[in-house]
Design brief:
Blueprint: H1 2-32, H2 54-60, H3 71-81, H4 94-97, H5 146-149, H6 152-155, H7 164-172, H8 177-185, H9 192-205, H10 212-217, H11 225-236, H12 248-251, H13 305-310, H14 324-332, H15 337-340
Helix pairs in contact: 3-8, 3-9, 11-14
This protein binds heme C (2 copies).
């Protein structure tokens, strides 16, 4: 009898202790979790762009009918993009490998994941992603859509290391999300489809249109002689055979310097990586802001634009020595510092 009494007292003690310690962690968590700082009225992510861009924008937009960009959707996407709770040990966010200061890519050849492991390829700059017409994502185009792509790094064992159900329960446990989902989707339900839609909206909202190149195309500035010569070479010159007889513009089409149907396939030769459907070809992302996104190519093995245009082992990209500086001068006119520094795209934590 005494034994039973002792045992039940002990059990009560254990239950009470568990209850208290649970309460304590919850309280501690809400006190210490950083809250995103957001403007009272959401930023404008739905913008009007210069007229000369609009034909391309209309033709090449990969936004699906069921995920149109809204200011509240992109605001939620921005918070998710920079939230380290989207990784297993709360150390890595999308923004860790897609840094605004590096034009939404990583200055390192390979990026560190949540446990310090390295990615197999160079990170990709996330701008003008919306205008890759086919919508296929990654260097090897293995994701059919952006909505599909944005959940892959979260589940990747090197990058963020969560399962979808862990993702949903972690996001659901954070006190700032219900109101953000309510605004973005009309109810506070949190699920992986909504998480993917919001992340995709944020990524699509990053569009560069405020470079010197854009000013020139609107008649608001003029190219220097070197930039002008560089543009002509970019549009009209073909490399010496046996490289594909295609101009730079045939594969990097203005005005976003991006096309999902290049005039010819290309990939930097790489024994370790067979690219799109094992063809040895790779995707190229937008060349806008290219001066900010070194190192280059899918494996990040080319350190500078100078090396990219003048090294013998880079096929289809080597140009005559006297043309190198002019092409670089032209490529530098694609730099849009306003977008890189824009608070709409900055880390809110
Ligand atoms: C640990 C670093 C790392 C993290 C974290 C990370 N990425 Fe990436 N991202 C990469 C690398 C590396 C690639 C290229 C991988 C490949 O092609 O196999 C990439 C490619 C992409 C692409 C493809 C772009 C294109 O034009 O095809 C998108 C979009 C993208 N990431 C978005 C995200 C989002 C959204 C998150 C957060 C949910 C995220 N990334 C988290 C490193 C990272
Ligand atoms: C036949 C198509 C093709 C032609 C022609 C071509 N490119 Fe590329 N370019 C690509 C592809 C595809 C990649 C990415 C390949 C890889 O990573 O393996 C790329 C990569 C690049 C990169 C690095 C992009 C990054 O994000 O790392 C730059 C810069 C570049 N090209 C500029 C040029 C210039 C300048 C010319 C003309 C001299 C040119 N390209 C001609 C297809 C082409």
């Amino acid at each position: 009898m005494r034994k039973i009494a002792l045992l039940s007292t002990l059990m009560l003690f254990v239950i009470a202790f568990e209850y208290c310690s649970k309460k304590d962690t919850t309280a501690a968590e809400t006190n210490t979790v950083p809250q995103p700082s957001l403007p009272a009225t959401p930023y404008d992510y739905v913008r009007s762009y210069p007229a000369y861009l609009q034909t391309t924008m209309a033709q090449d937009d990969n936004t699906p009918a069921n995920n149109q960009l809204t200011n509240d959707g992109a605001t939620l996407g921005r918070v998710l993009f920079y939230d380290k709770h989207l990784s297993k040990n709360n150390t890595i966010s999308c923004g860790s490998c897609h840094k605004p200061s590096s034009s939404f890519t990583d200055p390192d050849q390979f990026s560190k994941g949540f446990e310090g492991g390295l990615t197999a390829r160079n990170s990709m700059p996330l701008l003008n992603v919306r205008f890759y017409k086919s919508g296929k994502m990654f260097w090897d185009e293995r994701s059919p859509t952006l909505e599909h792509q944005v959940l892959q790094p979260i589940q990747n064992h090197v990058e963020m290391g969560l399962t979808i159900s862990e993702l949903v329960s972690k996001v659901s446990a954070l006190n700032y999300y219900p109101a953000l989902f309510q605004k973005a989707f009309g109810s506070s339900t949190i699920d992986s489809v909504r998480i993917s839609k919001a992340l995709a909206q944020f990524v699509r909202s990053v569009v560069t249109y405020q470079s010197k190149y854009d000013l020139v195309k609107q008649g608001l500035a003029t190219f220097t002689a070197a930039e002008q010569t560089g543009e002509q070479l970019f549009l009209n010159a073909t490399p010496p055979p046996p490289a594909p007889q295609t101009t730079c513009a045939g594969c990097h089409k203005p005005p976003f310097f991006l096309t999902s149907s290049p005039a010819a396939g290309f990939g930097l030769p790489d024994a370790a990586d067979s690219g799109i459907n094992n063809t040895g070809n790779f995707k190229s992302s937008s060349l806008r802001n290219i001066a900010l996104t070194a190192p280059y190519f899918h494996n990040g093995t080319v350190a500078s634009l100078q090396a990219l245009l003048s090294t013998a082992n880079v096929p289809a990209h080597r140009v005559a020595p006297q043309d190198v500086q002019n092409i670089i001068a032209f490529l530098q006119t694609l730099t849009d510092q306003a977008t890189v520094a824009d608070p709409r795209f900055a880390d809110p934590f």
